Amino acid sequence: MKASLRWLSRHIDLSGLTPETIANDLTLSTAEVEGIERFAPATSDVVVGHVVSRERHPDAEKLSLCRVDVGAGSGPGEALQIVCGAPNVAAGQKVAVAKIGTKLPGDLTIKRSKIRGVESFGMICSARELGVGDDHDGIWVLPENAPLGASVASALALEDFVIEIDNKSLTHRPDLWGHRGLARELAAIYERRLRPLDLAPPATGSGAAYPVAIESPACTRYVALVIDGVRAGRSPEWLRHLLLAVGQRPIDLFVDLSNFVMLDLGQPNHVFDRHRLDALGAGRGIVVRAARASAAETIRTLDGVERKTTPADLLICAGDAPVALAGIMGGDDSKVAPESEALLLEVASFRATTIRRTSSRLGLRTDSSARFEKALDPHLPLAAAGHFARLLQSIAPGVRFPAKPTDVGVWQDPTTTIELRAERVRSALGKPLPASEIRGILERLEFGVEATSVETAGETFRVRVPSFRATKDITMEQDLVEEIGRIHRYGNIAEAPLTFTIAPPARDERRRLVRHLQDRLAGGGRFRENLSYSFIADALLEKLGASDEPHVRVINPVHQGESRIRRTVAPSLLPALEANRRHHTDVRLFEIGKAYEPEASDARGEPRERHYLALAWAGSRPNPKTARWDGSRLQKLQAVVEDLVASFGLARGTWTKDGNPPRWAHPGKSLFLALPGAPHAAAVVAELEPGLAPKLGLAGDLDSEVAVAELCLDALLSAERRGSAYRPLPRYPGIKVDVAVSVPEATRAGELVALVESAGKGQVVDVELFDLYRGKSIGEGRKSLAFHVLLQSDARTLTDQDEQKFLQRFEKLVTEAGGELRKA
To answer: Buried b vs exposed e over 51-72: b needs ≥16 C-beta within 10 Å?
Structure first.
């Protein structure tokens, strides 16, 4: 962004400060200045001349022979003879004259020359030749009161320096996208007063305000001012020169004044031809609305391009007819006609994200959209309208304002209050700043400051953040500390070694658990980690039948159709199964992430955040005639979950079918794990709901046996740990025993494991289920489970008699439980 020092001087006294000093101090305190350049430097070497006479060149129709008085430089009573080819040169004019030896832009040095046989002792310049605009149709005719012989720069007040500020330094500072905001910063840096600026709307007539209707929440405020009695003529020179200095091309009074207000206050605005608005909208006034998808609306913008709109775009309409892309560019149909004296000034506040998206989609980034993207102060529209009107009144005294400004919309004052501790400032900056300096810096930045109590002697402040700093910038105490530090100057804080005691950070159990799960699953479990966003697609919720569940909503979703945040992690894992099954017969995936429950919000209204591990295991269904059964994927995944729980040192839990299955789970094939000390079920393992598989693409050639599990990490962290003690390597060999038990169908494997351990009398080291059988040989309603059992003692070598005693005790326990020990 470019800023003119002459323009800044309208707001603050910069006397005694060089451009280099200002640029350096802004860089150190506010934003990085990338460069300094002098505006139209050639005008300092070119002088004001008076065309004494003009005659036709004796040997060329299109050339003129002029005698030009340049004051003392031309000698007493003498005038320079200059040959000029401009068609508009005339006797009596004041012109810009480059004398012999003057260097002009483009490495042009003026020399004594002979043109078509006549000597020329200089050059009468156009504005473009001097770097002052693009006008090259003729010579630059200067005002009649320009002092003869003076440099053009001093005569027309063109002496100016332009500083260029890195835009990246200003992305969080919408208040600095105008000269007033930069002047406010300089006033704070140099402890100078900011000149007052009257922004109140001028006196108006008693006519009816222009009708404006807002139909979209993307427009929070809309100010419209009716203007009569002035036409779009040429702007005054001071206005044109200020705009040229910062790279803006002057066009006419209304466009130039609109740009001036935008660059002065940082608030974009637009001028419509009211006659055209009334004709297009049949007198219905302005309507601010979203573009209509059904109508396939288009708008021809001021650059002459026909642009297609989408429902995400915000339009300014005259009745039903679009006349501007809100916050970006006006429409060609409503631009001000040269003869028109009926105008409408628009100054509004638009939602930053709406403007940014439309600008990005269309590839149309303007000075206006660049500012609206920064979340502007909602107080600015009325102030900018008043500024425009008063400037126009000073330029064209005959202008009329028939009615009070229209001011409609629903907006909130962003002004906020923050408690600031002086001790916090001193601690963070490492310098004992007095409370008076802390207060003084904040007040120079136009923050409201008051001490919270007499007892603290002003050591704690209640700071009122002004609206122009509260929209996107200052939100917490640390932000205020930064403000104080940058204005005090970080360079004024002496370097000092760190002397505080460094304490080791507290152990983060959640991080340790996550790392343990990742290593365990990716290593021995051969699972691959999946990473996805917390957003969940509306289409996936429809497939799961979970659209009716409450979800945290995203106001501005990154992608259409992903406006909700997941409640658990497992649904995010399911869509990845199809893509992986196309390449692998056995797919094992896991994901660790966060999920949110809106109905369990805290006192601040923030949804509860939970951490989950989701597992999915999919593969081809085994052929019972050819494949050896080694357990269903549900049982295998259950074993994986048990391994994860045990490997983290948690007490053994209990599996139950009592629970509320998730939408993705088979209701009849769902298991829930309860752990001692956990407030709720720590895990759920289930087969995928059969009706869901085809919706996920797991049908036909990809028909799969799918098991899914989900563990709540918060529950795991709150569960009891099992006692751990050092166990030396065994000194004596163990005995491996295989047992098979016929039990009723309802009997759980965990119950039999407990019987094995009870029969072992402390000698059971390991139990592993290795076979499940159902068939006619054991009867209907029964099943056979077979276990590998390892018996071992720390005191002696076990014998066959120990094995027999174990089997006798186990058989007795099994019989009492309604089962039968199967024997070969």
So the answer is: beebeebeeeeebbbbbbbbee
DSSP string, 150-187: SBHHHHTT---EEEEE-GGGGTT-GGGSSHHHHHHHHH
Query: What do you get for the CA distance between the two ends of the chain, in Å?
Result: 90
Distances (CA, A) of 215 to 208, 220, 317, 555, 721: 21, 10, 11, 18, 59
Domains and CATH numbers, the chain: 2-39+161-190 (3.30.56.10), 41-155 (2.40.50.140), 212-408 (3.50.40.10), 416-492 (3.30.56.10), 509-718 (3.30.930.10), 735-822 (3.30.70.380)
With a CB cutoff of 8 Å and minimum separation 6, the contacts of 422 are 433, 435, 438, 458, 459, 460, 461
Query: Would strands 270-273 and 219-228 be described as parallel, antiparallel, or unpaired?
Result: unpaired
pLDDT tens-place string over residues 509-560 = 999 999 999 999 998 889 999 999 999 999 999 999 999 999 999 988 888 8
435-444 vs 422-429: helix axis angle to the nearest 10? 90
**Which token pair is 428?**
């963070």
CB within 8 Å of 697: residues ≥ 6 apart:
577, 578
* Spatial separation of the C-alpha atoms in residues 449 and 480, rounded to whole Å: 12
Three-state secondary-structure class, residue 791: strand
| Count of beta carbons in the 10 Å neighbourhood of residue 668 | 9
Residue 767 to residue 104: CA distance in whole angstroms: 96
- CB proximity list for 180: less than 8 A, separation 6 or greater: 11, 197, 264, 265, 266
Could you tell me how many helices (H) and strands (E) the chain has, helices first? Answer: 22, 41
Type of residue numbered 651: A
Amino acid at the residue 629: W
User: Quick check: helix, strand or coil at residue 587?
Assistant: strand
| Residues in CB range of 562: below 8 A, 6 or more apart | 533, 535, 536, 537, 538, 554
Closest CA to 359 of 385, 402, 325, 396: 325
- 10-residue mean pLDDT series, the chain (824 residues): 96 96 95 93 93 92 93 66 93 94 90 92 93 85 92 91 92 94 97 95 92 96 97 92 93 96 97 95 93 86 94 95 96 93 96 96 95 94 97 96 96 94 92 93 95 64 95 93 95 83 87 95 92 94 92 89 94 93 93 92 84 94 61 88 93 90 94 94 95 90 90 95 80 94 90 94 91 88 94 93 95 94 84
> Does pTM top 0.85 for this prediction?
no
